Description:
The protein has 402 residues and is an alpha/beta fold. It has 2 domains: 30-195 and 381-401, Glycogen Phosphorylase B (Rossmann fold); 198-379, Glycogen Phosphorylase B (Rossmann fold, 3-Layer(aba) Sandwich), CATH 3.40.50. The protein has helices at 44-55, 84-102, 117-129, 142-150, 153-165, 174-183, 232-240, 260-275, 287-295, 311-318, 331-335, 348-360, 362-379, 382-401, and strands spanning 30-36, 61-67, 106-111, 134-138, 168-171, 189-191, 218-223, 245-250, 279-283, 299-302, 323-325, 341-342. The radius of gyration is 21 Å and the shape is globular. The relative contact order is 0.16. Residues 1-25 have low confidence and may be disordered.
Amino acid sequence: MHGxxxxxxxxxxxxxxxxxxxxxxxxxLLRIVLWAxxxxxxxxxxxxxxxxxxxxPGHGLDVRVVDISxxxxxxxxxxxxxxxxxxxxxxxxxxxxxxRARRPDxxxxxxxxxxxxxxxxxxxxxCRCHGVPALLQIHASSQIVxxxxxxxxxxxxxxxxxxxLADVVLVLSRExxxxxxxxxxxxxxxxxxxxxxxxxxxxxxxGNPVLPPRRQPCRILFVGxxxxxxxxxELAEAVxxxxxxxxxxxxxxxxxxxxPESSVRMQDALAKLRSEGRLIETGQVAPDLVTxxxxxxxxxxxxxxxxxxxxxxxxAMAAGLPCVATPVGAxxxxxxxxxxxxxxxxxxxxxxxxLAPLVRDPGLRTRLGQRARERxxxxxxxxxxxxxxxxxxxxxxxAREG
Length: 402
């Protein structure tokens, strides 16, 4: 394959999330071409890319990134934008050059599908033409289920053809795994969660704070784009009805909303909090400042309508924050047991009731936050998850050799 550094030959089944520590007879260097966005923007996939690339050398992975960042604002409607075409064309040309020059062992293609599905079909096909196994990782969950269910017959058929074109489809949530296994029998699927490093949970070094001093006894933190689908409107309304707390919003403006009325309600609720002096807004900040913002809050809320596997939830838990979120995407798996609170989507009253005891009781926040930190260390530590990626890559490379 590539000479002495090639993976050992052999025929093996694909590694899944249930076998993270599959034994290896050796630890060869694996060449990976990663089709993914680099920061900026400071979004979920780009933050995953940064963590992955930082940890890769320590796990015997030689990674070359083909950057697909478009610079187009996040939009709930995920509309096609002409500005993405030149970016996609340049990325495909770069991928072709990398495939020819480096002859990677595996191509790792990250995607949220939607408008990018045709681009990703070309990407996977190009990899297959060069004899490189292609792994398609879907960085979404609830969104994909709802989107596929709404497609017409021919468009759904085309989407399914793209999924089957990949050597394996990698998902983040049990929800999406079970849905795809039911809808597309025989589809090759693996599930590996997102990850967070231990260093991100360490106390922040002294320096200028990201957020101003508290005006209220308890600070609730929201991290993400200011979009109605993130549940920011419901969160603002819930905080309006609670005494003794303020809301800190760390994140940039999003694009258009699916429901313009929900955007108006969100802005109205935020304006009321602002007028009461109980709203802190930072706009988009650098990743290291996002990490520091968790240390300056008391609890974290993510009442999102749709999610894949939110990095922000892991980051907040690693920092020891108690978390209140909705049961979408992989969130129920992360918070199962007693390390977080789940509330129904869009239910302001339930959200307020869940937040109230945490706002009043610092001891409860401490206990829940400690359990959250322990859960992250147990299941989502960076090195443990990277071992699972490596095992999957090795299986794909061996399968090509077999």
